[in-house]
Design goal:
Distance between the termini: 39 Å
Structural class: mainly alpha
Number of strands: 2
Largest sheet: 2 strands, antiparallel
Helix content: 55-70%
Strand content: under 5%
Strand order of the largest sheet: 1-2
Amino acid sequence: MRAHPLKYASPFLIYGLALLSLFNTGIWCWLALIYAWILVPAAELFQKPDPANMEMAEEEIAKENGWYDYILYSVVLFQFAALFIFLWQMKHSSFNSFDAVGRIFTMGLLCGTFGINVGHELGHRSKQFEKIFAKALLLTSLYMHFFIEHNKGHHKNVATKNDPASARLWEPVYMFYFRSVFLSYISAWKIANRDMSKKGMAAFSLRNEMLQMHLIQVAFVAIIFFSFGWLVTTWYLIAAVIGITLLETVNYIEHYGLKRNELSAGKFERTMPAHSWNSDHIIGRMMLFELSRHSDHHYLASRKYQLLRHHDDAPQMPTGYPGMMILSLIPPAWFYVMHRQMRKYKTAN
């Protein structure tokens, strides 16, 4: 049966490789990166996508099986443990520049694929402690405002001109980074301030969620600074930026060139599976907790990751998310491949 939580234990292979990277020197420091950015994309080039969905009986079993949730909860512990090990090793162990770069990018990989990605999944949950876990994971990348903007901004405005996290046609990823990062940040402030106004409170208040998040993040960095020094703090900040860059690269590929029709001024058609790029390549799906079944996630954001479905009318990427992220970094190649896919699926452009 496909409904078994153990298949989502595979992402923890990256944690194991990351620990080898953090406790060793030389090529060992690059093992997690080699796996994530060379071996997985290469394997998915030759792997056929698996569009099969669970049968109804399997879906009911998966829905009731708490282990799918426990796996996500454990990521919180693993992520903070990995961050502490990274900080400790960078402070107390001997290494050269080659090792340092490998370790920093490895920590950045964890910040992006587990800190932000699992934080994203838990951020859609209804239980309060799950939302706290989500914010804690986002804290490791210093990107807590994502919790506000993604849930109250991106999901409302996706694939429209109002969404900074939806990539425009012919927009290179490097231009998208600046637009998405800065406008999403501004959007989060606007949403938080509007929430305060609805409650009849002043925007500049300790009850403003954006202000709370900034204070938490400043305190978090201050603890790292006073515990490990300015150099290790700088390396951590670089790792956090790498994690943010990975998130924004995923944002770029998820909705590139897709648009919802505007029915009237400021009113758009409902978000459908056709408004997100999908990938059914199994390794990337497991590695990212089904993030690449993104069409169904936007169609029904409350659906848990293990229940996400393939939709025949969702445009499909030619390979998995890891490979597509790499391709996006080469704009001419990206445009060539993706515009052919858009013609193939007759997507709006």
